[in-house]
Amino acid sequence: MKKMLTAMTVLVLALLLSGCLFSKKEEVTLGLPDIREVASLVSVSLITDLVVAIPPEASGSWNLPFMKKSYLAVGEAEILIGIDVNKIEEYKVNDGVVTVKLPEPEIIKKSFDPEKWTYWDDGTGIFRKVSPKDVHKAEAIALQQLEDKLRRSEVMEVAHSNAKRTIEKFLLQSGAREVLFE
Predict the structure, then answer these.
(1) A Pfam family for this UniProt protein (predicted)?
(2) Is there a contact between 101 and 181 (Cβ–Cβ < 8 Å)?
């Protein structure tokens, strides 16, 4: 799958910027709608711990013995961060110099495998069991908190820098004389 994604990304960039491979006399027009259905460029892959817990409000106002809902799971989450190649709408090719305006990096994929997690239940919720709905809500909250944390961290800038470096390397190897980013 990764090889196919890489091949598709390379193909998109080649089509997108093929103008730098032709002589000055030959002009090639390529419309972005022709390549909109192609994958994203992943520039950071991250595996991190994720803690999923039932939020306190899940137990409601019941503060009675054996009525508390209790659930805690710890495992790994996989995060892929990069740029959506489909969002590259501004680029120029002039005499072998390619100028590209990259979109902001985004979280392309966030996933986890609950089969590999460790679960705990303190047994205090004898009369109020944790439902699948409670678990899904807790997982969604944990993933959103992780995403918010990542957006505040430097990993998004690292993803942007890695994407620039990858695109620049590819374009230079494809015949561009110079690559500039706006």
Answers:
(1) DUF4230
(2) yes
pTM, two decimals, is 0.65
41: nearest Cα among 162, 149, 151, 152? 162
Domain span at residue 26 reads: 2-181
Q: How far apart are the C-alpha atoms of 180 and 98, rounded to whole Å?
A: 6
Pairing assessment for the beta strands 90-94 and 118-120 based on DSSP bridges? unpaired
Q: Which of 164, 168, 147 is nearest to 46 (CA)?
A: 147
pLDDT of residue 11: 45
pLDDT at 125: 57
Of 25 and 146, which is predicted with more confidence? 146
Helices (H) and strands (E) in the chain, counts: 3, 7
* Number of structural domains in the chain: 1
For the chain, what is the largest distance between any 2 Cα atoms, rounded to a whole number of angstroms?
82
Q: Which residue has the tokens 């000055």?
A: 24
Gap between the Cα atoms of 91 and 176, Å rounded? 13
Pinpoint the alpha helices (H) of 34-99: none
